[in-house]
Design a protein that fits this description.
With about 525 residues, the protein is α/β, with parallel strands linked by helices. It has six helices and 39 strands.
């Protein structure tokens, strides 16, 4: 493709004129404005109407101007520099017949004279000067390098910063409003946020050699509160404790205590690595699972509370026969009613316990104004102290001390396992004896039968080893039970008939009402004595 162009030439028969070269392969035609401007700049007279007629011919043709000698005009160009000095475009015009072309060095020198020193497009320049010339065509001879703008620093948070409560979707498409995903759990040492550094960008340069500054970028600073550690390079923060993390006004907060007003439809179930504080109540059918303590300032209904540490309920629990309290430490409540309670390694302290199943690794103390322990089954390893035990109406009440409840459960499980192992060993013995007798008489057995006998013998030997281990463990527990002779049940008020008192492996069914008494194990039976 080549644009149309023009040239001053000698005319046939004398004189001179302008020769028109039409465009080739879709190039742009000669513009009358450009032609007239060039002729005017070189003082060449013309008739505009005649020029237009020749241009319209759209072929290689010469328009005769006069009888004088053909002027000598060297190759020229027009240079346009953009307002922002980011580009320079040149249009070359051919020399007249008898004129001379410009050299590449002359052109480059001209550019330097015009202070164009950067971004020279040598390929474009060379294409013109190493060919017959590219005329009446815009050639980009200098191009500036724009500044590359950078990006602001960002903070990437490793936890959910959207505080809007969203329920969990069940597999069947229904919504589980008990699990609302409101807690961002974190663990000690876990990275909570990091800075993605700013990109300052790169300076650019215009064709005059002036540096172009990229836009200013913003840095980022990690804002945080207690229980958060800033890295040495100040580019990340991590948790110092197990707990929960949240973002408040661009500041990262970590706490090992999760505090809510109530546990109900507004919060859903709570699972938290740390302690939980409920300022109000816990509604029925909801649950709290915490690795630390659970402190509830209101009432607990038929809920399920699990704590790695202690459970404290300021106004008590009405379990509605489905509520559960499980603590690795102690349990303290104003009252406990119709609930299942377990303080695995600690004590249970309540103002009253009614119709509940209670287990404590240490002791149970019921010391309210009347101190009722009525109905249900209460177990403690060391002692049970109450004011009122049982009820005048004869509510079935069982209290048990002298054995750690967890060890008692383990003891019972061991007895069942030993019984099963003995059954398996006993059932395998006749098969092995029968096989030995037949083999002694010369009976032949196929590989499948031999493999069957081999597996039975292997299983029997394994069961014998297990039986030895479990019997040893059972004996160890029996020693522990035998040493727990100091356990007792103490009643500082009145114990009613119908109450069953178990100490170790012996029990007593209270037949009459007694006051201010203590029950202990002596000479293989439960005996009552004064406090």
């Amino acid at each position: 493709m080549r644009n149309g162009y023009f040239q001053i030439v000698n005319a046939v028969g004398g004189g001179y004129g302008v020769k028109f070269y039409p465009p080739v392969d879709g190039g742009a035609p000669i513009g009358i404005g450009e032609l007239v401007s060039w002729l005017d700049s070189h003082g060449i007279a013309y008739e505009l109407a005649v020029l237009k007629q020749f241009l319209e011919a759209d072929k290689e043709v010469t328009c005769h101007f006069g009888r004088g000698e053909c002027p000598v005009i060297n190759e020229t160009y027009k240079l346009d520099i953009s307002e922002d000095n980011m580009s320079a475009i040149v249009r070359f015009y051919p020399p007249s017949e008898g004129g001379s072309r410009m050299s590449i060095n002359e052109f480059l020198s001209d550019l330097r004279y015009k202070k164009i020193i950067s971004g020279i497009q040598m390929q474009e320049v060379q294409e013109h000067f190493q060919s017959e010339g590219i005329y009446c065509t815009d050639l980009l001879v200098a191009k500036g390098k724009p500044a590359r703008n950078g990006t602001d620093a960002e903070i990437e948070y490793m936890f959910n910063t959207d505080l809007r409560v969203r329920p969990t979707m069940n597999e069947d498409g229904s919504v589980d409003y008990f699990n609302l995903n409101v807690i961002n759990h974190c663990h000690k040492g876990e990275v909570l946020a990091r800075i993605i550094p700013e990109d300052e960008g790169e300076y650019g340069m215009d064709i005059m050699g002036n540096r172009i500054k990229p836009r200013d970028v913003k840095k980022a600073v990690l804002k945080h509160s207690n229980y958060v550690e800033l890295s040495e390079d100040k580019m990340s923060i991590s948790a110092l404790v197990d707990g929960h993390v949240m973002l408040v006004e661009d500041k990262v907060f970590v706490s090992n205590v999760y505090e809510v007003e109530n546990v109900d439809m507004s919060t859903g179930n709570i699972e938290f690595n740390g302690s939980v504080q409920v300022n109000g109540n816990v509604a029925s059918n909801f649950s709290i699972h915490a690795t630390g303590n659970v402190i509830i300032n209101g009432v607990v209904e038929g809920a399920h509370i699990v704590a790695g540490g202690n459970i404290i309920i300021a106004r008590g629990m009405n379990g509605m026969s489905k509520g559960v309290l499980e603590a690795g430490g102690n349990i303290v409540a104003k009252f406990i009613e119709s609930a299942t309670v377990c303080a695995e390694n600690g004590y249970v302290n309540a103002g009253s316990i009614l119709h509940s199943d209670v287990t404590a690794g240490d002791e149970v103390v019921v010391d309210g104004k009347k101190g009722f322990l009525t109905g249900g089954h209460v177990r403690a390893a060391n002692r049970i102290c109450v004011k009122t035990l049982g009820a005048g109406m004869g509510a079935a009440t069982v209290v048990e001390v002298g054995v750690n409840p967890a060890l008692r459960m383990e003891y019972n499980d061991l007895q069942k396992e030993i019984t099963e192992l003995m059954k398996e060993i006993k059932s395998a013995q006749p098969i092995l004896v029968n096989f030995a007798e037949k083999r002694a008489k010369g009976a032949a057995f196929n590989p499948e039968q031999l493999n069957y006998i081999k597996n039975i013998a292997k299983t029997m030997e394994s069961n014998k080893q297990k039986l030895i281990q479990k019997n040893n463990k059972l004996q160890d527990l029996q020693v522990i039970f035998g040493n727990q002779k100091r356990a007792y049940v103490e009643v500082s008020g009145e114990v009613f008939p119908g109450t069953v008192i178990v100490i170790g492996d012996v029990s007593m069914n209270v037949q009459s009402s007694y006051k201010y008494c203590r029950f202990v194990r002596e000479q293989g039976e439960v005996r009552m004595g004064p406090m």
